[in-house]
Here is the input.
Amino acid sequence: MKKCHHCGEVWGENGSPGTREDCLKCGYPLHACANCKFYDAAALEWCREPMARDEKPHDPEQSTSCFWFVFLDPEEERFNSEKSKSARIALEELFKPPSKK
Here is the structure.
């Protein structure tokens, strides 16, 4: 479920919002880095998408015209994170040294 980064209001449309689309509840821009799946405050230029790094805005909560913007879906991210964790555990088990008995 896609939500506004500022107030948490659900955005019920498919795809991503337009560059000038604002949240109906709080008025904050929806097409903003803080709502993007590539946004990472700890990453270089706030972004994990290498092609988008030249697009760095002054404020991640303000509207951006970044071509690489993908609206964050926390449920999708959680599913992918759980899937990655399961895969990592399976890989570690596969290459685990045999136990000594």
In short: The helical segments are 74-94. The chain has one domain: 1-96. The mean pLDDT is 79.
